[in-house]
Amino acid sequence: MTNKVGFVSLGCPKALVDSERIITQLRAEGYELVSSYEDAGVVVINTCGFIDAAVKESLDTIKEAMAANGKVIVTGCLGAKAEVIREACPDVLHISGAHAYEEVVRAVHQHLPPPADPFSQLVPAQGIKLTPRHYAYLKISEGCNHKCSFCIIPSMRGKLQSYSMPQLLTEAGKLKEAGVQELLVISQDTSAYGLDTRYQQVNWQGKEIQTRFYDLCEQLGELGIWVRLHYVYPYPHVDDVIPLMAEGKILPYLDIPLQHASPALLKAMKRPANSENTLARIQKWRQICPDITLRSTFIVGFPGETEDDFEQLLEFLQEAQLDRVGCFQYSPVNGAAANALANPVPDEIKEERFHRFMQTQAAISAERLRKKIGRTETVLVDEVREEHIIARSKADAPEIDGLVILPPAQGIEAGMMLDVSITDSDAYDLYAEYQDVLASGAFSSDE
Ligand code: SF4
User: Exposed, middle or buried: residue 158 (CB in 10 Å: 0-12, 13-18, 19+)?
Assistant: First the structure.
């Protein structure tokens, strides 16, 4: 059991990146990772505390680890509510909040001293990744300066803190060298990157660049791999990166959570409250980059949402014709300002609106995917199964978007990039036949 650490990572991709950093450090110091509680000398649990269901999952996991092992260190978003954890499990060894890498590592040292002779050569240059080898998350900042009334992330993760450009570009370069073909740029607010540094000017490989969203996208675009932007807040300066998408520097894909379309609701949410401007901007983006894929998320059943507000949202969906859309029924988050708002929406109305929303969007999505039949798409293979091959096009982010499903074929491996012909579609996925292999020296299905 000496030097063996159990690690459980819960929550969003941002928490996953925190886990990767802690694990990388522990491995560099010679700790071994094990997958069972019983074999571990200590268990680290990186928790999520965003919504009630995530809090429950985190607490259940802590209780399970306490019962099976008894030496448990808790970190992550739920760590900001240490009293909730202590109430459920008074004997956890240590509690820290989100992105407290050094504190977690110190707590591990205290309860399971590091090996005398670290074997740091076992840690790859790009660090330990919990994603498949061909894609990786690049977390560009911590925290958030907004005050969306339904969200407690700023109170859990603090104000915006951007990582430096040289640090991010070095990390991105190492990931590429290690075989990563797709970088998923994440943060709480990707388009705010650099604001906290006052867009500090830095020297990168002999060039003067600024610590800002556009410069970061431009530099990542030089890597020649897929670069996908997530969690982009709809600031006007987001428009500036659309030409980089049209030029093929970064993927023509924008994940831009809009949350609602009714001005009254957007105001109550403390979000930018002008959906007409948003529609005009979407049109402009499509003029500049006709292939752009737009993903967004929305909340239905927010306190005070009337039938009229909801109808405005459905109309917006029809007009915006977004490609990928996620929808959440509003659920009060402990500590969020929105809890104090009047006129909560009854659960059965939330449920009914959720289904109407999803039906509306499913029809839009099906129609947009149907138009791709007959087209050639470049796809990245995620998984080879006996019955079929699972891949994704430029329009599909892992875990949250659709798939491109291909027939089984010899010689295809995860991480290959292929040209395929789209033959069929349904509400969310595409079906395709092989055309040619672009990279990785593989061959097509009939070879
Ligand atoms: S921008 Fe995102 S992280 Fe920031 S407060 Fe709003 S919902 Fe929360």
Answer: middle
CA-to-CA dists, residue 266 to 50, 256, 307, 339, angstroms: 20, 15, 15, 15
Tens-digit pLDDT profile for residues 186-198 = 999 999 999 999 9
Assigned token pair, 376: 């050639």
**CA-CA distance, 286 to 291, in Å (whole number)?**
7
pLDDT tens-digit map of 155-164: 888 899 999 9
Report the separation in Å between the CA atom of 266 and the middle of ligand 1, taken as the mean of its atom positions. Answer: 13
Choose between 121 and 64: higher pLDDT.
64
Ligand 1 centroid from CA 150, angstroms = 8
**What is the distance in A from the centroid of ligand 1 to the CA of 143?**
9
Residue 188 CB less than 6 A away from ligand 1: yes
pLDDT digits (tens, 9 = 90+) for 277-315: 899 999 999 999 999 999 999 999 999 999 999 999 999
Return the residue whose CA atom lies nearest to atom 1 of ligand 1.
146
